[in-house]
Design a protein that fits this description.
By secondary structure, the protein is mainly β. The chain contains 1 helix and 5 strands; from the N terminus they run H-E-E-E-E-E.
Length: 71
C-alpha cells in the first residue's frame, strides 16, 4: 500500500495490464497466487519459498494459481 496500490493484484494490473486465466499462461509470464508472485516455467510456476518447510525456489502447478499476467 505504500506504493499507492490497494493490493499486490492492483499493482500487477497497473504494470502488466489485465490478467488472463492461468490456462493461457506461457513460459516467462507472471503468475499471481493470492499473496505471492511467481514466474511461469510451463506447467509449473516458480515461487520463492518463505516458510521453514519450503525454502528457496518452490515449484507449484500453474493450474493452482489465480491469474496470469502477460509479459
Amino acid at each position: 500500500r505504500q506504493a499507492g496500490f490497494q493490493s499486490l493484484y492492483h499493482y500487477l494490473m497497473a504494470h502488466f495490464g489485465k490478467p488472463v486465466p492461468v490456462s493461457f499462461a506461457r513460459r516467462g509470464d507472471v503468475i499471481y497466487e493470492k499473496t505471492r508472485v511467481g514466474i511461469c516455467e510451463g506447467r509449473v510456476a516458480v515461487f520463492v519459498g518463505q516458510n521453514p518447510e519450503k525454502q528457496g525456489l518452490v515449484r507449484v502447478p500453474v493450474k493452482t494459481a489465480d491469474w496470469c499476467f502477460r509479459v
